């Protein structure tokens, strides 16, 4: 779905699918965007280096960027060699390496940097002048995407600065094919319901909702979108997708890394705000939502919001039975001894910040009544894996002797790594008897489509340029997420809920086992 006018790609833009390059399938020419400048606030930061510029480069390499395109970085420190630094970052973090000199050379000609403090009007004046230059010299057509790769408290000030400098106006919604002004806001969106609501109101006072793109990069992951295709692009799964057949749903977002030098950020945020409020709840909504009437931004988001509203609140004493929070202690990860969270730089020695959360949620609606959704996420767990598992109900009656060893059917959707889908079922062990064994039927994304699938940020940046908000979070959606999360924090405080401990490299604290009882968590 797109609100702006799509420009027909010029000759050579938008690659046609070929047998040699199956990745382009489903990326037909209409995915090419209209000319625009991408302005990145926070351009000297980690996200820009590791994710944004590599994504821009890969879009350029796939010739999915418009002819008139430019990148303007904005940050506080002087960066005379910004383009060179970005080249180095791309060489390090791009999924396709080494860098292609021709593709980079063309992109580099449109890369510039505006040094300035976000608090000062001069920064926006200088940015305005740079954008005018780019309109003339690079043909960016007065259209801009302002990507706010900054902490949430800086968002209102930047939007006000842009508005006062007339760089964004509600008229920049880009309707009727006019030029557009769009703002991308990174997660976490606020720190609780109240701050998210205030931020929505502040953004809404300067811009139309259709200009605001709240990004959650999990939605840009190919395999996360494939969840929707699995459900709604096939006929065989959906009839099983309900309380009649599903015993429980299990979601895991596990990382083996720690806070990676982001101790200060983590002390403010913790994993509930970093992962549960956004990535994990997004996965839950995609698994639980009803089929939307169309692949349209509002139709899809309407259905997701309904799921969030149907989540049974976890309040007061219920937090003790339905949640576990914990922090990693020193341990061994991939054969290496690693320090505990409290020994990380910029972390308080008596920190209570959670680096692991497990919870048992219920979606109180017709489809899911009585089905627990168990969710766990943590830093410094045994391995990096994100997956969604539908555990089906056990057999009502055991027909075969020797099937005791088999487990109920399970559909495992692995989001990363080794992206794919597997179905566990029972098979007969060859021989004269009737012994059964659990086996799996495996689909691997890499084997089917090639190993270098586009990164989430590629997809999402292209969607912003095209004006497609389907994979972005709407204002009511982000508030509904906080409405579920806030009472958990309140309950932890009022019930003095303990912060458990787990050794780095383990699967989390023992206390979490009770949430998945009697069958236990799956070992991915
Ligand atoms: N890093 C990641 O992997 C992810 C990050 N995010 C989100 O993205 C956002 C940015 O994260 P990240 O890149 O890690 O943050 P960093 O701390 O690495 O970068 C912050 C950027 O903001 C700039 N900045 C801060 N204050 C000012 C100011 N007053 N004036 C001008 N520039 C300023 C800094 O410039 P300078 O250093 O020059 O002062 C720097 O470029 C956060 O909201 C984070 O939650 C989301 C998903 C993943
Ligand atoms: O948003 C974030 O996500 C990353 C995990 O992303 P992934 O794509 O590697 O799964 C996480 O490490 C980080 O703490 C968080 O801010």
TrEMBL record:
Q: Tell me the pathway.
A: Carbohydrate degradation; pentose phosphate pathway; D-ribulose 5-phosphate from D-glucose 6-phosphate (oxidative stage): step 1/3
Q: Which UniProt keywords apply?
A: Carbohydrate metabolism, Glucose metabolism, NADP, Oxidoreductase
> Domain Glucose-6-phosphate dehydrogenase C-terminal spans what residues?
228-520
Which GO molecular function terms does the record list?
Answer: glucose-6-phosphate dehydrogenase activity; NADP binding
The processes (GO biological process) annotated in the record are:
glucose metabolic process; pentose-phosphate shunt, oxidative branch
Give the start-end ranges of region Disordered: 1-26
Which annotated residues bind NADP(+)? 42-49, 76, 187
Q: Which reaction(s) does its UniProt entry say it catalyses?
A: D-glucose 6-phosphate + NADP(+) = 6-phospho-D-glucono-1,5-lactone + NADPH + H(+)
Q: Which family does it belong to?
A: Belongs to the glucose-6-phosphate dehydrogenase family.
Q: Please describe what this protein does.
A: Catalyzes the oxidation of glucose 6-phosphate to 6-phosphogluconolactone.
User: How is this protein named in the record?
Assistant: Glucose-6-phosphate 1-dehydrogenase
Give the encoding gene's name: zwf
């Amino acid at each position: 779905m797109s609100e702006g006018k799509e420009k027909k790609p010029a000759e050579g833009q938008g690659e046609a699918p070929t047998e040699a390059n199956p990745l382009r399938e489903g990326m037909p020419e209409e995915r090419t965007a209209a000319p625009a400048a991408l302005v990145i606030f926070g351009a000297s930061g980690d996200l820009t280096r590791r994710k944004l510029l590599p994504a821009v480069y890969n879009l350029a390499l796939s010739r999915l960027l418009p002819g008139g395109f430019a990148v303007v970085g904005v940050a506080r420190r002087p960066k005379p060699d910004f383009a060179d630094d970005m080249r180095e970052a791309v060489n390090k973090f791009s999924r396709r390496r080494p860098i292609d000199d021709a593709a980079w050379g063309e992109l580099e000609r449109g890369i510039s940097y505006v040094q300035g403090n976000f608090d000062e009007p001069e920064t926006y004046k200088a940015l305005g002048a740079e954008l005018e230059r780019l309109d003339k010299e690079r043909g960016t057509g007065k259209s801009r995407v302002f990507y706010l790769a900054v902490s949430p408290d800086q968002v209102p000030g930047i939007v006000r600065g842009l508005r006062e400098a007339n760089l964004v106006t509600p008229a920049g919604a880009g309707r009727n094919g006019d030029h557009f002004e769009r703002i991308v806001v990174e997660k976490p969106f606020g720190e609780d319901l109240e701050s998210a609501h205030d931020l929505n109101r502040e953004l809404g006072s300067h811009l139309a909702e259709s200009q605001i793109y709240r990004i959650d990069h999990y939605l840009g992951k190919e395999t996360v979108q494939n969840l929707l295709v699995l459900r709604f692009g096939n006929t065989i799964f959906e009839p099983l997708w309900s309380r009649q057949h599903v015993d429980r749903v299990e979601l895991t977002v596990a990382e083996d890394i720690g806070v990676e030098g982001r101790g200060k950020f983590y002390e403010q945020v913790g994993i509930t705000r970093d992962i549960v409020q956004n990535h994990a709840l997004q996965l839950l909504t995609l698994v639980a939502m009803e089929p939307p009437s169309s692949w349209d931004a509002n139709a899809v988001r309407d259905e997701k919001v309904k799921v969030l509203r149907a989540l049974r609140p976890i309040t007061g004493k219920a937090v003790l039975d339905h949640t576990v929070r914990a922090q990693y202690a020193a341990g061994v990860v991939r054969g290496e001894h690693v320090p505990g969270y409290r020994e990380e730089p910029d972390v308080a020695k008596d920190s209570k910040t959670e680096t692991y959360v497990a919870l048992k949620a219920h979606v109180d609606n017709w489809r899911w009544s009585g089905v627990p959704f168990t969710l766990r996420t943590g830093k410094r767990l045994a391995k990096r894996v994100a997956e969604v598992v539908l555990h089906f109900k056990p057999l009502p009656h055991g027909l075969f002797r020797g099937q005791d060893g088999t487990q109920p059917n399970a559909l495992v959707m692995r989001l990363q790594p080794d992206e794919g889908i597997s179905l566990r079922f029972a098979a007969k062990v060859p021989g004269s008897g009737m012994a059964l064994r659990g086996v799996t039927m495996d689909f691997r994304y890499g084997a089917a489509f090639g190993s270098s699938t586009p990164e989430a940020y590629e997809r999402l940046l292209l969607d912003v340029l095209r004006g497609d908000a389907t994979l972005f979070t709407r204002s009511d959606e982000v508030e509904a997420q906080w409405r579920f999360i806030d009472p958990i924090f309140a309950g932890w405080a009022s019930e003095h809920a303990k912060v458990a401990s787990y050794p780095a490299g383990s699967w989390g604290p023992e206390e979490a086992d009770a949430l998945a009882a009697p069958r236990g968590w799956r070992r991915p």
